[in-house]
Design a protein that fits this description.
The protein is an alpha+beta fold. The chain is built from three helices and four strands; from the N terminus they run αββαββα. A four-stranded antiparallel beta sheet has the order 2-1-4-3. A hairpin with a 2-residue loop joins β3 and β4. The radius of gyration is 15 Å and the shape is elongated.
């Protein structure tokens, strides 16, 4: 048994794993964070074929699996979200367990 000095990986639902897998393929999405008529709108999710809920996004962020950057489009602030290295490691660990 190998000892790991890293933070334990969270246990995610199938829906959350499916969304993380979609992000791992180079996809990202933007969440409008400007107080305007688009506030809270999610852009870029159109190519995701699964069932998307904002709480899935919240869970991945809370678990530290997303990287976030601020972008401005036509003067409106958006948060661009993509899977970080920890998220990719989680998927690698999940795939290993699934094929064991």
């Amino acid at each position: 048994m190998m000892a790991s000095s890293s933070i334990p990986m969270p246990k995610l639902t199938e829906e959350q794993l499916e969304f993380a897998l979609w992000l791992s393929k180079g996809n990202s999405l933007c969440l409008c964070s400007e107080i305007c008529s688009d506030f809270g709108k999610v852009d870029g999710i159109e190519t995701f074929n699964g069932h998307f809920q904002k709480r899935t996004l919240f869970r991945l962020k809370r678990e530290g699996l997303l990287t976030e950057s601020t972008v401005f489009e036509m003067g409106i602030r958006w948060q661009k979200l993509s899977l970080n290295e920890r998220g990719k490691q989680l998927l690698t660990n999940s795939e290993v367990k699934a094929h064991a």
